[in-house]
# Entry
Amino acid sequence: MGTTTLIDIIGSMVIGSMLLLTALQMNDTATKNTFQCQENLTVQQNLTAIIQNIQWDFEKIGYCKEPTLISDPARYILYGDNDSISFSADLYNTGTLNTVSWYLGGYIKGPNPRIRKLCRKVDNNPPSEANLGVTQFSLQYFDAAGISIPLVLATRRTRRISPSGARQDWCQET
# Structure
């Protein structure tokens, strides 16, 4: 009788261990899924925030409470290329024109070496930099008929590039 009891105990321990391992595996899988869903949600929320900010600025391109300040539509967009834009707009409906610039800033140290800061500069204020996981920022330009406009837009403004390739502030062409 002693050996069957011992075999029953060993068998119960084996089955119990297998059930415990199955429960731990299910817990690990559920935890991984939770973290992945949270990461996806964070990326979606960051993207939504960026889009809302850009849309808020872009829908004001060429708008001014005092329309006589920018009567020439060719002067709405001051500069534009495939990864940056500068334009005139009355952002705060005050009758004062603001110069708004959007561009990609420097790289951010982290697990993904391609992440860059998305920068927004209004007038002569320091740029506000968004560290929301942006790896690409590209723009396309179209005329009123929906025909693609080749880059770079012909304007009187350009940006200065340092020898290292780093972006500097906007400047007038001479």
Q: What stands out?
A: Strands lie at 77-81, 84-89, 98-107, 116-122, 128-134, 157-161, 167-172. The chain is about 35% helix and 25% strand. The longest helix spans residues 2-58.
